[in-house]
Amino acid sequence: xxxxxxxxxxxxxxxxxxxxxxxxxxxxxxxxxxxxxxxxxxxxxxxxxxxxxxxxxxxxxxxxxxxxxxxxxxxxxxxxxxxxxxxxxxxxxxxxxxxxxxxxxxxxxxxxxxxxxxxxxxxxxxxxxxxxxxxxxxxxxxxxxxxxxxxxxxxxxxxxxxxxxxxxxxxxxxxxxxxxxxxxxxxxxxxxxxxxxxxxxxxxxxxxxxxxxxxxxxxxxxxxxxxxxxxxxxxxxxxxxxxxxxxxxxxxxxxxxxxxxxxxxxxxxxxxxxxxxxxxxxxxxxxxxxxxxxxxxxxxxxxxxxxxxxxxxxxxxxxxxxxxxxxxxxxxxxxxxxxxxxxxxxxxxxxxxxxxxxxxxxxxxxxxxxxxxxxxxxxxxxxxxxxxxxxxxxxxxxxxxxxxxxxxxxxxxxxxxxxxxxxxxxxxxxxxxxxxxxxxxxxxxxxxxxxxxxxxxxxxxxxxxxxxxxxxxxxxxxxxxxxxxxxxxxxxxxxxxxxxxxxxxxxxxxxxxxxxxxxxxxxxxxxxxxxxxxxxxxxxxxx
Length: 543
What we know:
The chain is of the alpha/beta class. It is 29% helix and 27% strand. It contains 14 helices and 22 strands. The strands form four sheets. It has an eight-stranded mixed β-sheet with strand order 6-21-22-20-19-16-17-18, with helices on both faces. Helix 4 links the parallel strand 11 (210-216) and strand 12 (236-243). Helix 13 crosses helix 14 (526-538). The protein is globular, with a radius of gyration of 26 Å.
C-alpha cells in the first residue's frame, strides 16, 4: 500500500461512490474521501488503510466543484443522515443515474453496457418530504433527546429541526421529548436502564392523520403523555406501544398494542385510499410515491387477462393499482399486520380478485404454482438486501412473461439482474428520487422474458462496444428535460434540430427554416449547443 494512516496527500476527485463519497487515486491506490465532489482538487488525511483501498478525511478544497453548495442544514456534517446536501440538487439527480451505472458495471448483468437508463425523476421542492420518523431516545445533559446515531458511532445527534422531515412529525417528536422529561419516564440505556428506546411517528400525507409508537424495553404508563399529546395535536389518531426487550439492534419487538385511538390511519396513492396500521410498511416520501407507482403502471403494461403476483406487498398499495385492470392479484408479506391491512383494504375497495397471505414470497409462490395458480406478471419490491436466493431461483423456474423490479438499493439490484438476465431482458431502468440529499435512490426496472429457444448469447466486452453503434432516439421533450435539469438551460425544438442537423442526424427539411420568406433563423448559441450535444451523447444518439 502506498499510503499510511495520518499521511496528508493531494488528490484529484475522479467520481463519486455509491455512498456519496469522493473517489480518487494516489499512486494507484484507491482513496475514498467523504464530502468531496467529482472534479475537485482536495487535500486530505488518510484515516484508514484497507487491503484494496484507503479512507481519508477532507482537509481543504483547493479547487471546488462548480456544483458545490452550502448545505442548508446546520448539523449536516455531524448528523450523517444526508450525504450529498453539499451537491446542487440537479447534480444530485445526475449522480444517482451514475450510481446505477456504477452498480451495473460492478456486477455486469447481461447487456448492461447498452441498458436504457433514464434520467432520475426529481422533486420540485426537495425538503420536508419524509412523512415518517423513527428517532432513538437517550437522556443526557439532564434532558431527553431524540434523533439519530452519528454514522459509525454510539453518539446520538439530537434532531429538532430536520429539513427533510415532515414539519408536523418533527413538532410532535419535539413535544414528546419534553413530556418524557416532564413525567420522568425512564429512557433506555443498553448498559443499565430499561425504558423508552425509540419513537416512531408517521403522517398520512393525504389525510393529515398521525400515528405514533413508543418502542420500550419494559412496560410503562404513558397515560399522562398521551393525554397532553392528543390535546395539543388533534391530528394524532393512534398511539401504540411496542415491547422490545432484546439486546440487538432490531428496532421492534414482536408485539404492538394500541394504547389509544383507532387501529389505522388513512393514506392515498394515485386514485385510491387505503389504511395503514402502525407496523405496516409504506414509502417514506408520499409525493414521490405517486410518481414511482405511476412508473410501475407504465412498466408492467397489463391486460385484463393477466394474473399478477405482488411480492413484498406491504398493505397492498401497488397491487391495488392493478386490481381493476387484471383478472387476479395475489400478494404476500412477512409482516402479519400488513397483510391484515391489505385484506381489509381490498375488502373496503371492493376488490374480490385480490388475495393476500402472510409469509415469505420464496415459500408462498412455489406453493401457489403447485396448487395451479399461474401468474404471467410479477412485481417485486424487496428490502435493501434485494431478492432472496430462493425467490430468485423460483422466478427463474416459473418465468412470468412480464416483470417489474422496484429497487431501493442499486447494488443489490445489479446483483439480482446478473441472475435475472439469464431469462429476462432489461427494457429500461427509470430511477425516482425518493430521498433527496441522500445517496439513496429508487428504481423501476421493466423486464421482459426472452425467447431463449431463439436467442443467441454473444459475449461482448466494453472495448468491443466502442466499435459498435448502439443508438436510440430520445424525444425532444426528453432532451429538453435533460438539458434543463443538468445545465438549467431552456432549449427550443429548433435549437435541438439545428444541433442534430449539424452533427449529421437527419431532420425534416423545414426544421431549420423560418416560416416567413427570407427571414433569417438565429443559430443555436454555443452554450446551448454544448448542452444539447451532452444530452445526445447521454442518450446514445452520438458517439
